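Subject: VWFA domain-containing protein structure
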Amino acid sequence: MSSVASSGEFVFLLDRSGSMLAECIKNARDTLLLLLKSLPLGCYFNIYSFGSSFEYIFPKSEEYNQKTIEEALKKVEKMEANLGGTEILEPLKHIYRQPSIPSQPRQLFVFTDGEVENTKEVINLVKQNSASHRCFSFGIGEGASSALINGLAKEGGGHAQFITGADRMQPKVMQSLRFALQPAMVDVSVKWDLPSGVSVTALSPPIAALFQGQRSLVYAQFTGQSSEASEGCVTVAYSLAGHPSQTQLHFSLKPAEDSGLTVHRLAARTVIRSLEMEVGEPGGQEDDAGGQKKVVELSVQSGVSSVFTAFIAVNKSNSEAIQGPLLCRTIPTSCNLRGMAPCSMRNLKVPVMSCDMAQLPQMSLMMDEDDTLDNDRPKQPPRDPLLHLVSLQKASGCWCLDPHLAAALGKTSEEVEKPKPASVKQDVWATILALIWLHGFKMDAQEEWELLAMKAVSWLRAQKASLVTECVEAGNALLGCNVQKDAVGL
């Protein structure tokens, strides 16, 4: 994996509290599969899970190889949301008590769907250990605490992600893994060079780290006036992979003609969010009263909502707040029954609740055989083809030529083995076929398998395999693809 790190200690901390619904825990298991298969040889890893108590796969982080990855995945497959509440502090303390592995920088991935009562204590613990690791956090679902997720990433020098609604967990998590495998821009400082009479107040919090592909917005407020010069300069200094660097930008101090307040509100929002992080969640300690007051004042002045303020309805005629509970209006609902034209429930002549099923024999004609309920035989959802193929990859990055791979490719063993050039090794042929299938059928999910494909290409190069061009041509013919050798990375 030439463009990313080949070392590191990767620690995954997964929420298994009762609030992690069946679909959430399943997605978490699938995501762990992708993560583990994408790790580089030579690294170390471990998996912790927590609820009211916590568990771990290994007593200490183990070296990444075929034996340890198989053992870990067997235990991951059995994970359920059955550990009770959401107590994250103790497993974090246990992780930080583990001695660091020389030349293996620790990368911590935290997955949770809820809130904790000791958010500040958890974040402070991460901050105290920030010199020895980076922390990447993931909020799953609508109930995840933004203060916790953002605080973990901010103090841990990592990156925060939120998975809500119809979001897929895998692409976001794999993006963070790419960040973890690459050097980050650190020691970031912003210096302003302004003419006399003009001062600046930084509104954005300091940038802890910036990863490849990320951007950071810096807001500042200028006050005063100068007749000497109409130009200022800002210098951003940073360190990347141990090499110091800096960038300068000259800008005009002449006020823009646009009188809109969009930028001002964005700046106010940044300050409010930063203050909220310091104050904590509503209902915090009494010594947070001063910070809460600042948030409320700035929120009211700027018209930007906060955790302590909200917009209310006001009667335009007398400028008084409208009192009373929310009212519920009945809205006609449309329905669509298997090709029938949409109809409004309001327009039905027969009330739904008074319908007699005996009067509607035609309803049975609108159901396919597949629609009938079979309570005696629950259906298991088929495994995702991509995850099926990924699960077969070895820790080294290769695939084996066996009936399982043939089934994942939608072929029989004979169909897969027959086109193989005689002098080509079976695992080389199998790995090339897997790469062709990924590039030919799963380009829409490339960010999910890109890292493990890079590992496969590195393995192929190490084999110094011959007849690669012939293998790619034969693989395309077998799978019905038109993938170029260069596109695969060979």
